[in-house]
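Human:
I keep going back and forth on a fold encoding question. Comparing notes only helps if you start from a blank page. Show me how you would write down a chain together with its backbone fold. Write it directly below this note and I will take it from there.

Assistant:
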Amino acid sequence: MAFSRKQIIEPKVLDLNELIDNLRKMLRRMIGEDIRLQTRLSRPLARVNADPGQIEQILMNLSVNARDAMPKGGELLIQTDNVTLDENDAERHASLKPGLYARMSVSDSGLGMDADTKTRIFEPFFTTKPKGKGTGLGLAMVYGIVRQHGGNIEVYSEPGQGSRFNIYLPAVNEEPIELPKAKQIPPKLPTGTETILLVEDEPTVRVVASKVLKKLGYRVLEATNGGDAMIASQSHPEKIDLLLTDIVMPGMNGRELADTLQPQRPDMKVLFTSGYTEDYIVHHGVLKEGVHFIGKPYSPHALAVKVREVLES
């Protein structure tokens, strides 16, 4: 999943501190009022060459996992600092070379993990959540993004002692771009007024996709799985123009959902999405060739363009 995807990243020279500051408000909404969010940002921080949308995806995935590990509340801490790795340090970090790195850390005061869990957390489909509550792709996606950017991720955790994820990204000697404040949608993106049924079991992806689509003018019906999507469709007597659904979900998968809904709504277009490449899911018989597909993680621009393309097809 990490290296065979066709996803095109759009790296820019970034100040991670600025990105975290911009994302703070959304993270607070996602983790809830019973979890205290703190940031300790080292200034000045080394610049990195990275895709802003994918780094935000990392932060949101790790924050949601931390929230789930603190069912009774707790503390979420996001830190940044500069780290210089020598040859001995680099040997400890797979594929990293000696040099300067920006380190971004996400820590929680939650349940923690035992040694066996720590060795498997980045495996696709491995999850400690109850059946039907997750696909086990969140941390696999985080791992893939970090490695795609030439970095490394490590985890420290003990049962009952919380968890800490350290992400190392190579530093660059360039001036950062100025990020849009509060993730404003660029005015050139294609817009619309149609109704979209969004089906996504990963909370971080669903929150971002829904927010982007609503800002573009669409009416969005949200569902966390196939069963919820069926109920949402039955409760909405008006037209649904597009079904935007993840493929790999607990229970009914995206293809089965589309096959069930389309006879009831023959004019409804369908756009599939997945953390796996289109070639992979076609090869394994999950999808047929020629269907509309967008790989995850996707940028707001890619989502806006693809949704408009499918609606007008």
About this structure: The chain has two domains: 12-172, 185-311. The CA atoms of residues 191 and 216 lie 5 Å apart. Residues 12-172 form a domain with the Heat Shock Protein 90 fold (CATH 3.30.565.10).
